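Late entry, written up from scratch paper. The run itself happened at the end of the previous shift, but nothing got recorded in the book at the time, so transcribing now.
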Amino acid sequence: MLLTSANKVQAEVRTTTGTLNASLAHPRECFAEAVQRRAAGVVFVHNHPSGNPEPSGEDLSLTRQLVEAGRVLGIPVHDHVIIAGDRYTSFADRGLL
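Output as recorded:
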């Protein structure tokens, strides 16, 4: 989700579509629309079809890369949310950003 300076949702953008158990994401693609649309911040959201909302090692690593890329670009990452069925994990709530 791309955010305005008032933290309102400016746009929802799909960066990638994964397979049953994997998705390729890179900060370059994740921030492309945010840069183009001059977003003031972002929230990343993805799903875990397994029903388990716990972040994987890859989720943690990618989130660190996204936060660092956001710092460099001046587009803060406000959260990364994993949705799994009727449960979710918020990286911000867990202090993982």
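The longest helix spans residues 57-73.
(Scratch paper discarded after transcription.)
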